[in-house]
Amino acid sequence: MTSLAKAECLLPQESSQTEDLTVTIQTPTGAFEFPCQEGETFLHAGLRAGVSLPYECATGTCGTCRGRLMTGEVDIGWEASPALAKLKREKGDILLCQTKAKSDCLVRVPAKTVTQTSAEAVPAKTRGVICNSRKLTRDVVEFQLKLSAPMTFEAGQFALLTSPSVVGARAYSMVNHSIDKTDSIVFVVKRKHGGGFCDWLFSDTVDGTEVDVFGPLGRATFDTSEKKNLIIVAGGSGIAGMMAILERATRSNYFSKYAGHVFFGVPTLKDGFYLDELAKFVAKAQGGLNVTLALSNEQPSQASHPNYEGIKLANGFVHTAMGASMAGRYDNAMAYLAGPPPMIDAALRVLITDGQLSPQAIRYDKFG
Ligand SMILES: Cc1cc2nc3c(=O)[nH]c(=O)nc-3n(C[C@H](O)[C@H](O)[C@H](O)COP(=O)(O)OP(=O)(O)OC[C@H]3O[C@@H](n4cnc5c(N)ncnc54)[C@H](O)[C@@H]3O)c2cc1C
Ligand code: FES
């Protein structure tokens, strides 16, 4: 153990619950001790105390937050988690994003960890009321959350929402972004039939419902100081965080210096949404930005969208459309990907194999 960093000072002000348990995390970069409320996951307690614990999905699917319980009693959380199934549970392996302390705990984490020192917003717990929900297509809904405590968040970040009617938190990317504190977040959700949160959200009775919110989270963020050409690949509701990135880039006139290439995958023409907004981004960029809507289940009858001249159409999967369009043009690129895991994996293959992009030049959120 090289150091023991106390991080209580960064607790959110609105929290009134007692902090009666202590969690110590041992990592290759030192040990970190922070308070943890009963019923709170290790990940949430650590992050809101300013300890940058490892995570990716924050919802039990990827396994990035793996740790090993050395001492203490815990509630393992989501028993059926796909990431938990791959761990050595008999040796004490746990997921920081699912496990809750029942006593003081000592956990070993193999990933390097530091105390957060940057201006990056520390995630906090708050509540939000759903309002202004509206269907954008047959299976995509947009809604706004009015927060009880304002939040700042970067373009490309996400938050965890917990509905009173559904077990477990779900991750959703913010469509908007705000470097100043805001009490309003916009989300867009593509329906997964049989999904717990989606079946609830699409029930038409959600406006006015309060949900628990934890955020902001996520490192697939965009900053105007990148000085890179942007390749944006989104499948379905993966366009959510990309809208924030495009808004941020447009507002700072980013596309006057660097090119932007957006590939947005949907099954058919009528599944496209946010096309008004995308067409406006294209017009404002004056040649610096191009947007392609890739239709996986429909052969477009013309080269551009019938209602939006600035939006090109392509047939096929979005990663294929991206690969065909970007061939020989990957210089100085930063790629942002979001959407279903098979789409992300396919796009990663194209970017790494054809584009020779390094892992540092690719930021992604796998929606699963
Ligand atoms: C970083 C990230 C950003 C995302 N952004 C968006 C977005 O902007 N728009 C969008 O439409 N989708 C997004 N998703 C996907 C979204 O989080 C949900 O997986 C999707 O909406 C389906 O949720 P569901 O509850 O309907 O389906 P379900 O199949 O019921 O659940 C899906 C996920 O919820 C979690 N979960 C399920 N049951 C439990 C349980 N008992 N306890 C704990 N956790 C459980 C698991 O992570 C599971 O994979 C994102 C995912 C990630 C990881
Ligand atoms: S961050 Fe915990 S499983 Fe993905």
Description of the structure:
With 368 residues, this protein is an alpha/beta fold. It has 3 domains: 4-108, Ubiquitin-like (UB roll), CATH 3.10.20; 124-217, Beta Barrel (Elongation Factor Tu (Ef-tu), domain 3), CATH 2.40.30.10; 224-366, Nucleotide-binding domain of ferredoxin-NADP reductase (FNR) module (Rossmann fold, 3-Layer(aba) Sandwich), CATH 3.40.50. The chain is 17% helix and 35% strand. The protein contains 7 helices and 20 strands. The strands form 4 sheets. The protein has a 6-stranded mixed sheet. Strand 2 and strand 3 (30-36) form a beta hairpin. Helix 4 runs parallel beside helix 5 and helix 6 runs parallel beside helix 7. The longest helix is centred in the last third of the chain and has 14 residues, at 341-354. The protein is globular. It binds flavin-adenine dinucleotide (FAD) and FE2/S2 (inorganic) cluster.
Jot down its keywords.
six-stranded antiparallel β-sheet; binds flavin-adenine dinucleotide; Elongation Factor Tu (Ef-tu), domain 3; Rossmann fold; disordered N terminus; alpha/beta; 3 domains; Ubiquitin-like (UB roll); binds FE2/S2 (inorganic) cluster; 368 residues
Give a short synopsis of this structure.
The chain contains seven helices and 20 strands. It is of the alpha/beta class and 368 residues long. A hairpin with a 7-residue loop joins strand 11 (158-162) and strand 12.
Helices and strands, with pairings:
Elements: E1 4-6, E2 21-27, E3 30-36, H1 42-48, E4 66-71, E5 74-75, H2 82-85, E6 93-95, E7 100-101, E8 105-108, E9 124-137, E10 140-153, E11 158-162, E12 170-173, E13 178-190, H3 196-201, E14 210-217, E15 229-235, H4 239-251, E16 260-266, H5 275-285, E17 289-295, E18 311-315, H6 318-326, E19 333-339, H7 341-354, E20 362-366
Parallel strand pairs: 1-3, 2-8, 15-16, 15-19, 16-17, 17-18, 19-20
Antiparallel strand pairs: 2-3, 4-6, 4-8, 5-7, 9-10, 9-14, 10-13, 11-12, 11-14
Helix pairs in contact: 4-5, 6-7
Bound molecules: flavin-adenine dinucleotide and FE2/S2 (inorganic) cluster (FES).
Residues 57, 59-61, 78, 158, 167-168, 170-173, 188-190, 192, 195-198, 237, 240, 365, 367-368 line the site of flavin-adenine dinucleotide.
